[in-house]
Amino acid sequence: MKISIIGTGYVGLVAGAVFSNNGLNTCCIDIDAEKIKLLSTGKSPIYEPLLEEQISSGIRKNTLTFSTKYNSIADSEAIFLAVGTPDLPNGSANLSYLYGAIDQVSKLIKKDAILVIKSTVPPNTCKDIKKYLEKLALANEVVMNPEFLRQGSAVNDFLNPDRIVIGCSSLDAKDKMLKVYENWKDIPKVITDTTTAEMIKYAANSFLATKVAFINEMADLCHHFDGDINMLSYALGLDKRIGKGALKAGPGYGGSCFPKDVSALIHVSKNTGNHILKAVHQANSQRPRLMVEKIKKIVGNVKGKKIGVLGLSFKANTDDIRFSPAIKIVSLLKDAIITAFDPAAMDNAKRVLPDIRYATTLCEVAESADCLLILTEWEDFKDIDYNLIFSKMAKPVIIDLRNLVDKHKLRKIGFSYFAL
Asked: In CATH, what is the architecture of 2-192?
């Protein structure tokens, strides 16, 4: 089966690479010529565990190709659209890239091919696309097939999803999609209409964002009453009605999905009195400022003080800094002298934080520092030689906003250790 994927971001690239290793002849298309040139050599432009191996394997099998030209879709049975739908200033989703891709696809698509939307889009978008195609004298079926990947574990998530959601309105479209996913035999397939499939994606991300905002407020209460947020999170997660996912207290959620999806759902539901998501969005927006207030209570006036920062990406195992709480916190500490380190995200961070210093090693971050902040939950930060770190710091103060490191170990060394 021949498929094409438009867009080589996190979703499109992971999908294309994994599909190509599961028997589908896959062409990934992107307008970025430099990116396509890099991908054609088997290299990934984004940091994502196991992705480069999947890309190289697909190229070796001759089932994965990359192109800047849309003419490769002419013989595809399914064309997946995985372009960005970023939020606009009013919170709504920007669909201009999606419709721009549809205009290109419409010139070449086979009459019996299906158009599969993997981009996150507001409810009824697929119906609108169907009407748009009809105005272009095209009768192609439009399918909604949302993705639920977590950056940092995207390849494994695509290979082993909790469910596969397929929104369609015809048996032919359903059969083609089941053929696409025929190697995912034991995975539940949720077959529904396109609007419900669109809603499932928004609802999933919004619910997870709500859990994050909730556990962060519980962390604040634990601080006030001298409770243990780690034990509270553990106990909540054991409740099967709640589940353990997204119950890790921290400086707030970020990335390319939760912030924009919550904003978009607030926008489309503005006439329905959606109060919960507004509160979630507000609580998360305030989180970095609250973390900076916590830092200043511990450190005092930060002006001129040397602060080491461990972690800049919005979460571990990714180089993505979009809506990263770490970036926001560093920005709010502009009066301090910041030295930062991240295993993958420093090149991206330099574009938005050009005025701070970037360390080449973990130990360099601690040199003469008055305080060390842990802002991203990289496993690397657990295994640091903290005895060496202790010897390098001017003041051995660690503020761990991810509750990552063993407090007993650090306090035994002699650190003043603070966490959520």
From this structure: 3-Layer(aba) Sandwich (3.40)
